[in-house]
Known about the structure:
The structure holds two protein chains of two kinds. Chain A starts with a helix and ends with a helix. In chain A, β5 (142-143) and β6 (146-147) form a beta hairpin. Chain A has helices at 2-25, 54-61, 63-70, 81-94, 109-112, 135-140, 163-168, 177-189, 210-219, 236-247, 261-269, 282-286, 294-299, 331-341, 344-352, 362-365, 368-374, 377-386, 397-412, 417-434; strands spanning 43-47, 73-76, 101-103, 116-117, 142-143, 146-147, 150-162, 275-279, 300-304, 317-325. Chain A is 46% helix and 11% strand. Chain B is mainly alpha-helical. Chain B has helices at residues 2-33, 52-59, 61-93, 99-106, 108-111, 114-124, 131-139, 152-180, 184-192, 197-224, 229-235, 246-256, 260-286. The A-B interface holds A 85-86, 89-90, 92-93, 110-112, 114, 202-205, 253-255, 257-258, 395, 398-399, 402, 406, 409-410, 412-413, 415 and B 39-43, 126-129, 145, 147, 149-152, 235-241, 252, 255-258.
Amino acid sequence: xxxxxxxxxxxxxxxxxxxxxxxxxxxxxxxxxxxxxxxxxxxxxxxxxxxxxxxxxxxxxxxxxxxxxxxxxxxxxxxxxxxxxxxxxxxxxxxxxxxxxxxxxxxxxxxxxxxxxxxxxxxxxxxxxxxxxxxxxxxxxxxxxxxxxxxxxxxxxxxxxxxxxxxxxxxxxxxxxxxxxxxxxxxxxxxxxxxxxxxxxxxxxxxxxxxxxxxxxxxxxxxxxxxxxxxxxxxxxxxxxxxxxxxxxxxxxxxxxxxxxxxxxxxxxxxxxxxxxxxxxxxxxxxxxxxxxxxxxxxxxxxxxxxxxxxxxxxxxxxxxxxxxxxxxxxxxxxxxxxxxxxxxxxxxxxxxxxxxxxxxxxxxxxxxxxxxxxxxxxxxxxxxxxxxxxxxxxxxxxxxxxxxxxxxxxxxxxxxxxxxxxxxxxxxxxxxxxxxx
Amino acid sequence: xxxxxxxxxxxxxxxxxxxxxxxxxxxxxxxxxxxxxxxxxxxxxxxxxxxxxxxxxxxxxxxxxxxxxxxxxxxxxxxxxxxxxxxxxxxxxxxxxxxxxxxxxxxxxxxxxxxxxxxxxxxxxxxxxxxxxxxxxxxxxxxxxxxxxxxxxxxxxxxxxxxxxxxxxxxxxxxxxxxxxxxxxxxxxxxxxxxxxxxxxxxxxxxxxxxxxxxxxxxxxxxxxxxxxxxxxxxxxxxxxxxxxxxxxxxxxxxxxxxxxxxxxxxxxxxxxxxxxxxxxxxxxxx
Lengths: 438, 287
């Protein structure tokens, strides 16, 4: 009897072995990755910047797992942010095939389109679930109805403030630009060795200094361009918005006129000022004991960018689409890397583990894991994306943004707002005409 | 005859390398300068446009501004470098137990990379935080509110300071070498004739140092008129375009706006300027 039972167990074991082992051996790889490692041994060059960004650290940490699954090796180049765009261009022209995958600011998209292989060209091989992304970021990765990349690092503008400072001075969280100006003034004039707000006015290239300003413009019902890309940054509304924005310099550290984006974050994190307009990812800096004072970590509050007089405004958002080089010799292998980098588990794991606050997918932003790691911040980001709009995306962006950054730099130096914006509008009009836009 | 031809054969490898690494790229830039090539629109040049790119340069306010900035910057840097250099040379030559140590230290500023120097100066000048700003605020309280890199004049001055901080001592070493070669009997004779130290310096030392000062001036001029690194790291050309040198402007047109045809024309103009400057200096030196 015992022997019969043993035989029966052995039979079952064999059955399990026959059924289960092959199913493991031929299990489909996740995220649409191709089985049987068809690109085993391929080496990919990933043009990327900012190695210290926590999300990118998470990406680098995942390379070994990707290599195990696909046999593809990936090498990160880690160029400085300021040099990434020119690296993409110069490598593409001077050494085609020298890179395979990159990430880029969506505003660079039109000027880089010649060097990118649209993701849509791989539609017969891969159908990413785009419904899990905010419409705003998918829109930013799309040019002329063609998807060029998958949003891989997305941000939306937020207002960060020191709750303890506001409480101490009996101030509420500002809900209009007028309230924000008044709060900044009160904080600066209080005897607490602190400025009301810190800002980034320095020319940094790539249109970085235009981002907070554009938020203010839109709050006032103005914008940089009209629908035909004629410059309207000198409209009465835009001038009023810019004057208000420049007036905030009275309540900012004097050096704010030379601060770039990173300097402004550091300024807030060090306790120099009580408020800052910054990207959503900055929250991880303001919660990092190695980067921020403890009092800042304990008391930083946040809110989506301030509504304008006309009602709720659209905060500026941005994304870094991940895209494949048009001159790559390994486009299919590169697609495997894009599938891996933009997979939902990696997105969720990075934000859910608390490693980074950056999440691209709605399912990650509204997940319990994200809420567990970042309280309500991820949800607030998700909500902000629902009405977010990008910076203007146009072919002449390199010249247009340079003219505008120079104009803002001059305004920070005391130049007349209306006159400077008029001059900028004239210069941009020349650029647009030379470009044959109208 | 065979010997005289053989020397040209020996020169051939060097000439070949020179042609491939220098002459051909320059010819390509010359060729591109007559074409329209906006990389954002086409991966290849879009056709010849004659002298349009050159004409456009002289109608472009930003180009003319960059010429003005480059001229001011170069003049300022050459002047301060020579003043500092002569001061150092004269004082070190007088000799002291520290003279040898000082001579060794003088080379150090030059050994620090321009990029590092630029970032260091940027941080040292940060309003309310940087060490230079703090010291100047203490010494000159009336300048407490000056944000150095936000002011067009001071931004250019400090960008120049970051350069003459290194070129001054290096120029000093070069001038010191020339100073040591002057016959000391000349100075002694002047002293015997009752000339004051100042008079000896102005009427004897400086004229005898003129050739070396000109060499130093030539080197600084050529170096600073191509300034790029300090602009990138200290000011990005700002405030406004107050510190945008010609070389930085060319970079901006070529690698930020991606207008390679126009950038090539600008590069040729810069090359012409440098050739003319070198010629003028060499004529002055030979005279």
